[in-house]
Write a structure and sequence with these properties.
The complex is a heterodimer of chains A (about 240) and B (about 325). In chain A, about 40% of the residues lie in helices and about 25% in strands. Chain A is an alpha/beta fold and about 240 residues long. Chain A has a six-stranded mixed beta sheet with strand order 6-7-8-3-9-10, with helices on both faces. In chain A, strands 2-1-4-5 form a four-stranded antiparallel beta sheet, with helices on one face. By secondary structure, chain B is mainly alpha-helical. Classes of the chains: A alpha/beta (about 240), B mainly alpha (about 325).
Chain lengths: ~240, ~325
């Protein structure tokens, strides 16, 4: 599968701290790539590099062969690399339609509100379109984030812990949505701590530890990788149970 | 439909009221206050684009007002340009200066942005004070005049009387209001509000905060420059006092206590806070104390501005229309 988005040898230093060291990844259309690793491993920094919020110290990011690592964040989003955030980010006091229309506005969509309603319909929030983002439950706000990103017409969608804080039913809904988006040809990069979600939905998984990629493969391969079990979860068997 | 009909009736009523002021108000001093208030409506609407719509606290607005006044004055006195050419030229010059300043400072946020705008305002005051060959320093530039207004089919109209100049300022304020309303209701205005509410998210969805903040900053500054030109020709004199910090303070009071993020709020704020200090003159040395107490009470009990309680108490709910930016 040809890569839609490709990161090569990404290194990020914050002063004396090496946040990422020579990380490579590639994701193609209709593929779900999950990035896992312990807290502080560098997953969100990697997202920030891919979306232009952090400029890499070294390495390159290419979208359809075009270098994008020096472009500003808004330009990268306009090119189709759109993200959600680990901490929920919404336009609090605005109605769902007004907030979700942001992505459509950025593309000079002739009818941003229609595009917003379409995106809200996909995630199942159309019935609440007139509410403000602040009036939604936490779970609905996570779905709203997804709608915001979809209205921005992504070709590569980066989801930062979309199922965090969700109950089993809500997580299942997110997994179903991600699956539908994959079948529509979106390239999806997922950072997620919920291993059940990761193992269910991913085509490939990469594991990062202390800023370095230590493994990559299909979910069942990564799950069985001795190095991953030791480095990512430690040798403590109770923690390993989560991975299995 | 009901909303639209009532809105049209209210607009027509307001138009009749504003047009009849020179016919009703015979006191020259109060007419002068209405003219000053009209000029400050233009200033406040421009500042509201920056402070209320994109959420950046600029303290450079009085400097843009002063720059517009000086530009128009110098063009008039040195090049004998009419105010009718000097006014758009002043807006253009102020807009260009704001663009150059914005190119640097709109990449910063928070306290850094605020401090640089203060530094710019101080710099402008220093230039006006010390570039004596051009500005005459503290002596200022006197002798500015209000030119005739040429109307096709009618000819030259003398607008030097307060009664007639009031209508010029009223036209300027109305045009500014209409242009600002058109802007904030367009996709540009929607982007302004999105940036104000969550800049990081707006950028991550493809909206350039720099671009839209620049649009607000330059438009707001150009309006301040145009208002400065009107002020200079009306008063007939400009001096470095125009750059005093007290001017930007009162401009911010007009916008914030009027109701930032709305258009009617800062316009109303400009009128109220032009008249209030003057109406308190009878209180002699208690004047500024009473004014300060009013500001504190308004801030505490109307934190979103005067306009919101007015709407909530005086306008029945079914007459109101939804306006996202007024949130």
């Amino acid at each position: 599968m040809p890569a839609l988005l490709e990161a090569r040898d990404i290194t990020v230093r914050f002063g004396g701290l090496m946040a990422l060291k020579g990380v490579n990844l590639a994701v193609g259309a209709g593929e779900v790539l999950s990035v896992i690793g312990p807290n502080g491993a560098g997953k969100t920094t990697l997202f920030n590099v891919l979306t232009g919020r952090v400029k890499p110290t070294a390495g390159s990011v290419q979208l359809k062969g075009q270098s994008i690592e020096r472009l500003p964040a808004f330009r990268i989003a306009q090119l189709g690399v759109v993200r959600t955030f680990q901490k929920t980010e919404v336009f609090g006091p605005l109605s769902l339609v007004d907030g979700v229309a942001a992505g459509a506005l950025a593309h000079d969509d002739p009818d941003p509100s229609a595009r917003a309603r379409e995106a809200l319909d996909i995630v199942g929030l159309l019935g609440k379109a007139k509410l403000t983002a602040h009036q939604l439950s936490y779970g609905d706000q996570r779905l709203l984030e997804l709608a915001q990103a979809l209205a921005a017409k992504p070709t590569v969608l980066l989801l930062d812990e979309p199922a965090s804080g969700m109950n089993h039913q809500e997580s299942a809904h997110i997994v179903r949505l991600i699956g539908e988006l994959r079948t529509q040809g979106l390239a999806i990069i997922l950072v997620e701590h919920n291993m059940q979600v990761v193992m269910t939905i991913s085509d490939r998984v990469i594991v990062i530890n202390y800023g370095e990629k230590i493994a990559e493969g299909r979910p069942e391969e990564v799950r069985a990788d001795r190095q991953v079990i030791e480095a990512y979860l430690g040798v403590d068997s109770s923690a390993n149970a989560d991975l299995r | 439909m009901l909303d639209q009909t009532r809105q049209r009736l209210a607009t027509a009523g307001l138009a009749v009221l504003l047009l009849s002021i020179p016919l009703v108000v015979r006191d020259s001093y109060y007419l002068h206050l209405f003219i000053i208030a009209g000029i400050f409506v233009i200033v406040a609407l421009g500042l509201d684009l920056i402070v209320g719509y994109v959420g950046q606290l600029s303290l450079a607005h009085a400097a843009f007002f002063g720059l517009g006044a000086y530009a128009s004055a110098l063009l008039s006195l040195r090049l004998q340009w009419s105010m009718w050419i000097g006014l758009p030229a002043a807006a253009l010059i102020t807009g260009v200066v704001a663009f150059l300043l914005g190119w640097v400072i709109l990449r910063t946020r928070g306290h850094r942005f605020i401090i640089i705008t203060v530094a710019f305002a101080e710099l402008m005051k220093l230039v006006a004070t010390n570039w004596v060959d051009v500005t005459r320093g503290f002596m200022g530039l006197p002798g500015l005049q209000i030119p005739n207004l040429y109307v096709p089919g009618i000819g030259a109209i003398d607008i030097t009387s307060k009664e007639r100049f009031y209508y010029v300022v009223l036209a300027g304020a109305v045009i500014t209001f209409v242009l600002c309303r058109k802007m904030v209701r367009s996709s540009i205005g929607r982007a302004f509000v999105l940036i104000r509410e969550n800049e990081v998210l707006a950028e991550s969805l493809g909206i350039s905060a720099f671009r839209y903040c620049m649009i607000a900053f330059v438009t707001g500054a150009a309006l301040a420059g145009a208002a400065g030109s009107l002020y200079a020709h009306y008063v007939g004199f400009v001096s470095p006092d125009l750059f005093n910090f007290s001017y930007v303070t009162i401009m911010l009071i007009m916008v914030i206590l009027g109701g930032k993020g709305t258009l009617i709020g800062p316009a109303l704020g400009a009128v109220i806070f032009t008249f209030l200090p003057e109406l308190l003159r009878d209180a002699s040395h208690w004047r500024m104390i009473i004014f300060s107490v009013i500001l504190i009470v308004t801030t505490l009990f109307m934190p979103r501005g005067i306009i919101f309680p007015i709407i909530e108490h005086l306008v029945p709910k079914r007459w109101r229309t939804r306006h996202a930016s007024a949130s």
